[in-house]
Amino acid sequence: VYIVLSLEIKADAHVWGYVGENIKLKCTFKSTSSITDKLTIDWTYRPPSSSRTESIFHYQSFQYPTTVGTFRDRISWVGDVYKGDASISIINPTIKDNGTFSCAVKNPPDVYHNIPGTELTVTERGFGTMLSSVALLSILVFIPSAVVGVLLLVRMGRKSAGLKKRSKPGSKKSSIEVSADTDQEKDDCMAKLCVCCAECLDSDYEETY
């Protein structure tokens, strides 16, 4: 007898996570019948290289996480049956949680369906991951700063070369160049004044302590 699946369930085939960081096990379903209080959701767990399964979560109008075993008080409901979501979350996962998780949904009269399995792999967040984060931060922060610094140095070098060229013996300065030199002298004076003020502030700070 050929049975047509009126209830379709989807789940991620593989999920990776880190020790101590909550992991979401996503499960969605589509039913041809309206959602009623008869709808049930069951999550089971099977350890690696084992045929033994254990129930870790049950839903029927309310959430019933397991109260025994290694997943006791560590399963949280994050789904919404009216949106076709039957997902759960594992709190404070460990490497011992590695294995296969299965999501089963029944919405009478829709009871025939596939039961997808999700292979979970939990690892330690090692030095390599931290190094990658540091490298990404460097790319986003330090490299743009370095580019700006190089551009400023190039601009200052061109400006200095232009001043040397205008100051050669025998060259007559125009009124515009004279004005530019005057502005440069004013800028130099302001820079020296700022340096003096900074030295005074530093001196006062040291005397206080």
TrEMBL record:
Keywords recorded for this protein, A-Z: Disulfide bond, Glycoprotein, Immunoglobulin domain, Membrane, Signal, Transmembrane, Transmembrane helix
Range of residues in the leader sequence: none
Residue stretches making up the Ig-like domain: 20-123
Name of protein: Ig-like domain-containing protein
Annotated TM spans: 130-154
Pfam families: V-set
Domain of life of the organism encoding this protein: Eukaryota
Subcellular location: Membrane
Gene3D superfamilies with a match to the protein in the record: Immunoglobulins (2.60.40.10)
Database matches in InterPro entries: Ig-like_dom (IPR007110), Ig-like_dom_sf (IPR036179), Ig-like_fold (IPR013783), Ig_sub (IPR003599), Ig_V-set (IPR013106), Myelin_P0-rel (IPR000920)
Protein source organism: Balaenoptera physalus
Family from the record: Belongs to the myelin P0 protein family.
Record's GO cellular component terms: plasma membrane
PROSITE patterns the record matches: IG_LIKE (PS50835)
